[in-house]
Amino acid sequence: MAAIALNGLKMATTSQAYMESKPVNDTRRLLADLCRQFYGLGWVSGTGGSITIKVHDDSIPKPEQLIVMSPSGVQKERMVPEDMYVLSPSGCILSTPSPKPYPNKPPKCSDCAPLFMKAYLMRNAGAVIHSHGMESCIVTMIDPLSKEFRITHMEMIKGIQGHGYYDELVVPIIENTAHERELTDALAEAIEAYPKTTAVLVRNHGIYIWGDSWINAKTQAECYHYLFDAAIKLYQLGFDWSTPDHGPIRKYGGRRNMPVKAGSINSNHETGPLRRCIVLDIEGTTTPISFVTDVLFPFARDNVMRHLAATYETDETQDDIKLLRAQVQIDLKQGVVGAVPIPPDDAGKEEVIAALVANVEAMIKADRKIMSLKQLQGHIWRTGFEDNELKGVVFEDVPEALEKWHASGIKVYIYSSGSRLAQRLLFGYTNYGDLRKYLCGFFDTTVGNKRETKSYVEISESVGVDRPSEILFVTDVYQEAIAAKAAGLEVIISIRPGNGPLPDNHGFKTITCFSEI
């Protein structure tokens, strides 16, 4: 049982004294204030919806913090701090509000409690919001067969944890039940199946949203509702919110935005493979290998010292240094060639930077596919692209193919060992202009190594296809092709100038130009 110091005395968090302490009372008041605000937004009208917040206390680890939760079946806009329930970290009720006279109902803890606890236990959340906002209900009804809500290229996506403007936001949809508690298992399955999500939609019902803190959860809730409202309005106007350019909705067989069949009918009147998504490698597929090896890598190597010196005190660079320190510690233990110790910060900025530069140069020379290097390289390249010192290079057939696939309703993604930032920069500053408008998202090695089958399984589960075979993966690397094929993807190997040789009888279809797809 956690214990804290209060006025010099040590006491358990479940003691009556602590439950009447300032942190708990402040959280009660905050919850009442938020309920009134959310009522005004239409999220908790008709006594529906609910909110829960953990009692923040720096002296107590988050998993051991108490939970304050709004009651069920009450007028949310009229609640006061004394109406709130206090629960233990495991969900046991510690404090129940006193009954109120008729016509008020007897106090009852939120029916959402079991679902809230799943977010707390599975995601270490600091707050969870259950909204009945109209837009969160209607957006699940547009396509009654869809198991996901997807949207991309909207500014408010940046307000969702772990997402940027060019990313595709994916929110799982579970089916509604007659009683709230019956949703618990389905919500837990969705949380487990979508490790990046911070929300789960319930069809014809509403949404559950969680965050690290009440501010984070509230911010995301506002952004989710905005995005749902935008999707509904775009749908009413006949535009597709799920594509980068939000162009007119295309209907195939009576359904919205059904995919076309790439190369649909050949000269023998045979149906081609159904492709809903195309995932492209970069080096040797969309871009010459020489551009990466002869331009990008040398630029990062030659500018690493200048970049670190100019940005050393920034949070971003300090995060880069933290990752490099951790990687170098591993390298030193494993005896990796070129790894040298990085002195502590108090050794001085110059000495730290000199050691960092030595390690980065060795990593670049060895062409290591590690996140610490890729993240720093992305930040160095960003400066180069923004200052017009770099220009992204793609093969001449790439822009036309991207535009054609996009117009056909096929979603295109990038999967590269380079960071997502580096990928966005390359396609955002190309010799043919900004090509990101044709791309739905970017994957890097945070989903897994490109030569491992599980990475392609993760991508298949992220892009919203019914079967992995609906994804075409194009790469120049035989080992990547093998891994993707084992995951069930259709695979084509790209043969471009400068690419390495393939094994004899490799068994894959090959192309020399995207127009052959």
Q: What can you tell me about this protein's structure?
A:
The protein has helices spanning 16-19, 22-41, 113-123, 134-138, 184-193, 214-236, 289-311, 315-334, 349-365, 371-386, 398-407, 420-428, 453-462, 478-486, and strands spanning 3-6, 9-12, 50-54, 67-69, 85-87, 93-95, 127-131, 148-152, 168-174, 199-202, 206-211, 251-252, 255-256, 277-280, 411-415, 441-443, 471-475, 490-494, 509-511. The relative contact order is 0.08. It is globular. The strands form four sheets. It has a nine-stranded mixed beta sheet with strand order 6-5-4-3-7-11-10-9-8, sandwiched between helices. It has 517 residues and is α/β, with parallel strands linked by helices. The chain contains 14 helices and 19 strands.
